[in-house]
Amino acid sequence: MLRITYYKNLFNSIKVQLxxxxxxxxxxxxxxxxxxxxxxxxNAIEQRVIEQLTSIADLKKSxxxxxxxxxxxxxxxxARNKVLAAAATSLLQQRRRFEGVDQLIKSETxxxxxxxxxxxLHVLKQFYKHYNVISIIDGANxxxxxxxxxxxxxxxxxxxxxxxxxxxxxxxxxxxxYTSELTDQNCMTYFCPVCMTDPxxxxxxxxxxxxxxxxxxxxxxxxxxxxxxxxxxxxxxTLLVRKEGNDIVYLNDLRHKQGAALKLTSSIDSTPDIPAxxxxxxxxxxxxxxxxxxxxxLSAYRHIPILNWGLVAKQDLxxxxxxxxxxxxxxxxxxxxxITVVIAIGISFTNRITQPILQLAQGAKAIASGxxxxxxxxVSQNEVGILAHEFNQMAAxxxxxxxxxxxxxxxxxxxxxxxxxxxxxGELAAEVAHEINNPLGGLQNFASMLESEPENxxxxxxxxxxxxxxLKRVEVIIKRLLTFSRPYTLHLSxxxxxxxxxxxxxxxEHRIEPGHVLICKELNExxxxxxxxxDHVSQVFINVMINALESMPNGGKLTIKTxxxxxxxxxxxxxxxxxxxxxxxxIMDKIFEPFFTTKNKEGEKGLGMGLAISKRIIxxxxxxxxxxxxxxxxxxxxxxxxxxKAG
Length: 647
Prior knowledge:
The protein is α+β, with helices and mostly antiparallel strands. Among the domains are: 80-220, 2-Layer Sandwich (Beta-Lactamase); 435-485, Helix Hairpins, CATH 1.10.287; 493-642, Heat Shock Protein 90 (2-Layer Sandwich), CATH 3.30.565. The chain is built from 16 helices and 18 strands. It has helices at 2-11, 14-79, 82-95, 101-106, 108-127, 160-167, 222-226, 274-280, 317-320, 322-368, 383-413, 417-452, 457-485, 497-508, 534-550, 610-620; strands at residues 133-138, 144-147, 173-179, 186-197, 204-217, 237-244, 247-250, 265-267, 285-290, 296-304, 309-316, 493-495, 517-523, 530-532, 556-564, 571-578, 624-630, 634-642. Strands 8-7-6-11-10-9 form a 6-stranded antiparallel sheet. A 5-stranded antiparallel sheet has the order 2-1-5-4-3, sandwiched between helices. Helix 2 packs antiparallel against helix 10 (322-368). The longest helix is centred in the N-terminal third of the chain and has 66 residues, at 14-79.
């Protein structure tokens, strides 16, 4: 609740309101322009990244298509070479006369033809640099009869029958990327038929006697093409995939996962690499998704129809749009700097407005507190300066009017003080006259009786004694009146309130009959000293305790307690409590008036001056005296006195 009140008061300030208005009026257009510029630049950057990635994907697709078509063209040229076909026909026919290739090579005549054909194959390999192995296999059993890679000569290609089935339908073909059983390398194999050809006439038939295999090492040929990543940063890469049943197979080694070619597969139903799936299905486009690492990327995907490949060019989103993040940070910093500058300007501007207003408010407060000499030092020529000038003029006129009024009030305070004094003197005189009238009347009667019987000695003695008592009564009244009315001097010093109380109790203890009234003392020994006139304060305690004793004619309990004042700080309280008859409510307000007394029964003596004098003494000590009483239960006097001030 306090915090809510604080904020409400804070926003009630004109200064805060002006700063808020200035900030709103300046920052809203600034924010609008910055946000508009940010999104415009963001869209431009995104479009540039998309265009760059799309261009790379299109370029890689074009390069791969061209490369694949060139290899098919190379294979077609080799397939139409009649000389090569005739030499291969002769070699294959010669091989079938021997049990193995080793025996063929050992034959002197056949060895010459074998070496001549091998040299031709090496020449082809040098000319067509993309092929790392060129081999000829027997169409009857799939045996490698001759090869530029001698380690595989004599080995059998198990899938040769599928090659023959394909070549029966077309002249040249390609086997998609696979791991060769002969070289144990990832490769592609272009192949064409060796049709039986007459070595002399070079006429060929449709009979396939063998197959020419041209192996392309993927790592040395295709991967360099797709791994060339200009402008794709530290995370960009291109990759090839193909669909095999319900799986996606990655065909090349990946930038973030070496050795992945033909080994990394993902189920189409669960893979996060959606662009790879879409491209393998023949679709093309660009989208944000996750890749094989489950990392968010931007992917441009294309389809390679020749081999039904999927091509994906991708880059991590954090890198692709890193410039957008930098732009956002710059915009935020710019907005922060601008808002800081606006707030600083706003504070400076509002200070120029609110400072004179605060001076006016302080001036009004000073004048309201009575300082009519206060003037406001605002020298500006604007409306606030004019207001300050008029304010100073008003203060001067108020001072002039106040001086005249003060003089008049002083004069009037002095029909009133005199009147009050006269009324008080008259009231006091009436009370004194009433008090003295009784003993004077008695004296007059006694004097008349003495005059009428002067010879009666016994009566004269008796009346003389009564007359002396009456005169003493008048004397006591006059002394009490003088004590109450004339000034007296307090001799203040540090005193222990408990000591003063104990001394006062000792003064009245002789008036208590044994077992008549029980005195109970509850004195707090940790109270600080008080600054009082001990004799006068002791007189107060004695007066109150005597009244308490007189209120318990049949016995009772008198409790004197000292403690810290619960009402005032830096004060102590003395509680004097009796179990007497109590004080009626209708006379409670008169108890401290001079000459007011309840001792009007026969035999009781009291002038009603004790409590009046006690009240005056306590008030002269800047203390308080209060009464709480219930008829039939008792009365408590609470006397509050100031402590000594530190230092």
